């Protein structure tokens, strides 16, 4: 009991003392920028791959931020959404983890991944969150983005990171889309205005389905957050119709 109290108190002290950067709070915000981003693919200063369709309707555009999984090719994953972006007149940004996976995941490997809340101080955001913030700021300076139509999407480790970073930044991401996550770090407060879409295969052999259902979806719903949850008969994979459904819900196209 004493050990448990010490851990809880240490965690609370960490959350209070942690800087905004440690807690993953991003400073980048859309502005009324002129469209200077070139059509096609552009590498942003911290390595993210941005994509702008050649034909765009006038005015602020939707933005999909795409986080790759462990060891997954970031550019290939981002490019898999290009046809959708062309059809919907949306921009894409695919950040790249500094290592094989995202910083919060790397510092969480020795923890029980079924936990939905941080239990030790090393579990914090780091350079990856700062790099994403800088690249989003660079994009916002070169393209008009609709602040009400920004979604953060991820698969596998990228899904865990999208939930963790997305929940920490409801002021930026109106939707968070997570395919087969392993866990989520919770901020001090969750936003009831943010919408979440989660999908997970019931036969996932890499990250357990039950952890998503019981330790992510149920607590979010209990907190009053709107969560769309899709289970499917499959392993650790992306299911195209479910991906398409998530984008329709988030963007209407």
Task: Please give a structural write-up.
With 253 residues, the chain is an alpha/beta fold. The protein has one domain (36-251): Alpha/Beta hydrolase fold, catalytic domain (Rossmann fold). Helices cover 34% and strands 19% of the residues. The chain is built from eight helices and eight strands, in the order H-E-E-E-H-H-E-H-H-E-H-E-E-H-E-H. It has helices at residues 2-17, 74-79, 82-88, 103-106, 127-140, 157-168, 209-222, 240-251; strands spanning 40-43, 49-52, 61-67, 91-94, 145-155, 175-179, 195-201, 226-232. It has an eight-stranded mixed beta sheet, with helices on both faces. It is globular. Mean pLDDT is 88; it is low at 1-17 and 110-122.
Q: How do the helices and strands line up, and which of them pair or pack?
A:
Blueprint: H1 2-17, E1 40-43, E2 49-52, E3 61-67, H2 74-79, H3 82-88, E4 91-94, H4 103-106, H5 127-140, E5 145-155, H6 157-168, E6 175-179, E7 195-201, H7 209-222, E8 226-232, H8 240-251
- Strand-pairing-aware structural class: alpha/beta
Strand content: 15-25%
Task: List the secondary-structure elements in sequence, H or E.
Answer: HEEEHHEHHEHEEHEH
- The helix content is 25-40%
Largest sheet: 8 strands, mixed
Number of DSSP helices? 8
Number of strands: 8
Shape, principal axes of CA atoms: globular
Could you tell me the radius of gyration in angstroms? 18 Å
Domain count, please report it. Answer: 1
Which consecutive residue ranges, at least 5 long each, have pLDDT under 50? 1-17, 110-122
Instruction: Identify the CATH architecture.
Output: 3-Layer(aba) Sandwich
What is the CATH fold-level name? Rossmann fold
Quote the average pLDDT.
Answer: 88
The CATH class label is Alpha Beta
